[in-house]
């Protein structure tokens, strides 16, 4: 009887736990009581997230006691502790949230999104360095609408070609102008500067956006802004990244028959004659015996080899290794700032002999003299 009571108690507790870990549903509204559609709801401390529908309703796997983090564009992020299976969330709309975003445009001028009057896309440093890329160009791929990043060579140090909004000329250069901290630079920068030094990249793709640069920016512009410390901060940053790379798969080939082709008559024994010089895989079946390898040499010597499958072709590849070390020091006050960074990159590709090493160092600083002069 005692065992039965214990079993019933366990089943009851299991049922309560199972129910408490079900779905939590709710509705998102603003401070005026209007629905707030497409808000993002996340269970704090986890990767569980859902989006509210067009009617601002949502349902998320959570349990009583969890904290829901609700965020949306144009609203303050709100946290709600789940006390029942149905919750009501109120988001406070913020005014001017879009216009408060300041971006760097042509000639280093700064403007808010509302003041721009043209389309642009800002790619943040976090988005660029999420996967720890070794070059900026590869980090930019897929980060901005209308930007095509193409590798023009293989290996561990390829060149890149970037196009914004398609081809504009059949004979000329279609790449956008590259601007680094207000100065036009060549595309060698894309493989020389460390991605860890980039604060953001602003993609200017319209004629109005790059009018200050004239005809040289007819294909758009990439405005690269490097990191600078904020006033009153001192920071040391050290990062070490190691990446391994292997060939994902090999072509499927048969391993039972040798090279050559049939259909060239019969030999003196009446057997089908196989031409070993044909670039086909329909020769005789492998038997492990020693056979002639190709035609005789000029001096009459004949190379021989075991007639069996040769698997060493897969040894052509190796495990690639990328070792990247980043270090930066920064300090700033109300009158001056200092930023120094260094990177050492040593990478070995999957192809034998494909190696690349890069050591880079960057230093910038600023100093205010008086109220109107700065260096």
Structure description:
The chain has five helices and 23 strands. The chain has 375 residues and is mainly beta. The longest helix is centred in the first third of the chain and has 19 residues, at 2-20. 10% of the residues lie in helices and 36% in strands. It has helices at residues 2-20, 113-116, 125-129, 136-140, 189-192, and strands at 23-30, 40-43, 49-51, 57-61, 67-71, 78-81, 86-91, 102-104, 110-112, 120-124, 147-151, 160-164, 177-180, 183-184, 198-204, 221-226, 234-245, 290-292, 304-306, 320-332, 336-348, 355-369, 373-374.
Summarize the biggest pleated sheet: 5 strands, mixed
Number of strands: 23
Cα-to-Cα separation, first versus last residue: 87 Å
Give the helix/strand class: mainly beta
